[in-house]
Design a protein that fits this description.
One of its GO terms (biological process) is cilium assembly. Belongs to the CEP162 family. This is Centrosomal protein of 162 kDa. The chain is mostly helical. It has 2 domains: about 60 residues; about 200 residues. The protein has 7 helices and no strands. Helix 4 runs antiparallel to helix 7 and helix 5 runs antiparallel to helix 7. The longest helix is centred in the C-terminal third of the chain and has 109 residues.
């Protein structure tokens, strides 16, 4: 009891010194700087003395109620660990939410871009297909005209020049006239020039059609390559999305592990509290039995 009274007296003195230190004005502190240093030293000495007296009490009376209450309280290391775990769980949850929102925004933007590019490529492919059809039709027409001109020149006989009704008929007539000329007769310069001009024009049309078809094929192949590249990009994006999902799952598992550790810590604390309560109950029972024995002896 004397030690407890001494501890209380020292604590009250410590509180008084702290209050006096807080109530001092800056001017007084400037005038008397040594008083503040002495007060701090005195506070440290009193705190050390209080700690020593508390340790002596614990050693002398380990089964006292105050010591049992102190033992029931969680240690500083457990409190620091629980606070650290809680902060880590909060930071991981915030990181998971930010990663989820970022990945969702990224995937939505990429999907929109892919849809726009797909529609654009489809339109370009359709237009190129139409151009290819037109080129094929034009080349087929030119080839049919050429075949008809050759067959007519072989089958027909020499006739007098007549006024043509169209370019094809005029050219066929000229070719037939050129081939069916008798050996003794010469072709006129006008007829020969017309035949050469028609042949050159036909060759030019064929070359233009061939170049246009080649250009269409090149554009079609470029579009195919672009679509393939876009598909590869989508595959890489899907892979990144899967990696992000795996990272999120791992973070969630880590959070669950931390929560399990916190639960086990709480369970251990509850078990310790229960054991301390049982010890207190046993001490109370022993005290009551001792008191009864004393009463009987009296």
């Amino acid at each position: 009891m004397a030690q407890q009274n001494m501890i209380d007296h020292l604590r009250s003195e410590l509180h008084k010194n702290i209050a006096q230190k807080d109530d001092k004005k800056p001017q007084e502190l400037k005038k008397k700087p040594c008083v503040g240093v002495y007060a701090r030293m005195r506070i440290k000495q009193l705190e050390e003395q209080v700690k020593r007296l508390e340790e002596d009490l614990r050693r002398r009376c380990p089964d006292s109620i105050s010591n049992l209450i102190r033992a029931m309280e969680p240690s500083e290391s457990d409190q620091a660990k629980s606070a650290e775990y809680e902060e880590r769980v909060k930071s991981l949850e915030e990181e998971i939410t930010s990663l989820k929102t970022e990945s969702e925004h990224r995937v939505n933007a990429i999907q929109k871009e892919h849809q726009v590019l797909e529609l654009d490529y489809k339109g370009q492919i359709a237009s190129l297909k139409l151009e290819l059809k037109k080129m094929k039709m034009s080349t087929d027409k030119v080839s049919t005209r050429r075949g008809k001109a050759g067959s007519n020149s072989r089958e027909s006989t020499y006739k007098k020049p007549e006024l043509p009704f169209s370019r094809g008929s005029r050219r066929r007539d000229l070719c037939s006239r050129e081939k069916n000329v008798p050996p003794g007769r010469l072709v006129s310069k006008q007829e020969a020039g017309e035949v050469d001009a028609s042949g050159r024009k036909q060759k030019k049309d064929m070359l233009e059609a061939a170049t246009q078809t080649d250009e269409c094929i090149e554009r079609f192949m470029e579009l195919k390559d672009a679509i393939k590249n876009q598909a590869k990009e989508m595959q890489t994006i899907e892979k990144l999305h899967l990696d992000a999902d795996i990272a999120l799952k791992n973070a969630q598992m880590e959070i669950n592990d931390l929560r399990c550790q916190c639960k086990t810590g709480e369970q251990n604390f509850a078990e310790r509290e229960k054991s301390h309560k049982e010890a207190l109950a046993e001490l109370n029972f022993d005290n009551i039995s001792k008191e009864k024995d004393l009463v009987k002896l009296e």
